[in-house]
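Box 3.1 A note on notation
Throughout this textbook, protein chains are presented in two layers. The first layer is the amino acid sequence; the second is a C-alpha cell string describing backbone geometry. Keep the layers aligned when reading.
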Amino acid sequence: MARATVFSLFIILFYNSIFTQLGISSGNKIEYLPGFEGPLPFYLETGYVEVDGEKGVEMFYYFIESEKSPEKDPLILWINGGPGCSAFSGLVFEIGPLKFDVGGYTEGLPTIYYFPDSWTKVSNIIFLDAPVGTGFSYAKTEEGFYTSDILSARQHVTFLRKWLEDHPEFSSNPIYIGGDSYSGITVPVTALEIVHANQEGGMQLNLKGYLVGNAATDEWYDGNARVPFLHGMGLISDEQFQSAKQSCNGNYISPMNAQCSFVLDSIDSGSIGSWKRCNYGVKSTHDVGSMLPYHHNLTTSGYRALVYSGDHDMDMPYLGTEAWVRSLNFAIVDDWRAWYSGGQVAGFTRSYSNNLTFATVKGAGHTAPEYKPKECLSMLERWLAFEPL
C-alpha cells in the first residue's frame, strides 16, 4: 500500500475512533486511545473552548502535562502552520509523545506507541487546532469560519484566558507561544496580542517569550533565499545559478524580465502529489505584512525568542531566516558556533542581544523536530532553562 494511502487511512481510523470516544464536552481526560496498548503514561486532556459566542467559534485542543514538573514547567501554546494544519500533526509527527507504528502497519486500526523524545518531557503543551476550520475546530455560523491572522491571534488570547480560568493551577506558569512554518506569522502576532491584552487589563497571561521553526517571516527574505539555497545544496548547476543571478538581479520572487522568468522556470521541476495533513481551504486572510517589526517589538520589550531552522528545508531556507535575524541589527552576544546533542554536532547557533537566539538543526527538514527529535528536545530544554545551546 502506498505511503500516502497508509497515512490517510491512519488519520481516518484514528480520528473516527478518538472522536467517538471524546464527544464534544469541554475538558475530557483521556486514559486510553485506540491502537495504544494499556493506559497512557502521561496526562492527556481534550476539549473545546468557545472563543466567539456571537459567531459560535469553538476551538479544539489537546493538552498534555509536562512529564517532569507540570506545576512549574512552562506552558507552551503550540500552533501548527498552514494555515490549516491540525494540532494532531504537531502531536504525533513533531513534538508530542505519541507516534504511529508505520513500519509495522499491515491493515485495520493503526498501532500507536509512546515516544520518549517529546517536548512534554520539559513542558506542558496545549496543541491548538487553529485557525477555525482546522482539525476539529469549527463555527456554528458561516460567518464564524472567516478569520484572519489578527482575528485568529485575538481568539488565541481568548482561548488562553478561558482555558486558564478552567485550569488555575497553571496560571502562574511561564507561557511561551510556539509553532512552525506559517506559524512564523501566527506566533509573533499572537504574542503581541497577548502583550496588548495584558496592557488593557483583565486576566494577566504570564508570557515570557516565543519560539518559531522554519518560520514564514518576510516574503523578500524567505522567497529570495530559495535559489541560493538550491545552489548551495547542489540541486541546481553553477550555470543555472549564475544565469539567475545575472538576469534576476537578486529578485527571485517577482521576475522583471523574460530571461529571469525563463531561468526560474527551468529551476522549478515540480513534484508528485502526496498525502496532505493540512486543510489549506480554511477561510483565513493574511492581513499582516512582514514579521520583522513584531520580532523587533517583542524582543526589545523583554520577551525571549528562539528562532530555529532545519537546514535542509527548501520552503523556508535557513539562509533567509539567518538574513532577516541579522537585519534586526542586534548586537551579537555569542557568535556563530556549533551546538551539540549526544556528543555530536546538532547544528550551529548565534545569540543576540534582546534575548534572541538563532539556531540551525543539522539535517532537519521543514518541521525540524519531526526529523531530529532528540536534538530538538535538547535545544528546547536548554533554552527553556536559560542555558546556552
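The chain is about 35% helix and 20% strand. The first strand starts at residue 28 and ends at 30.
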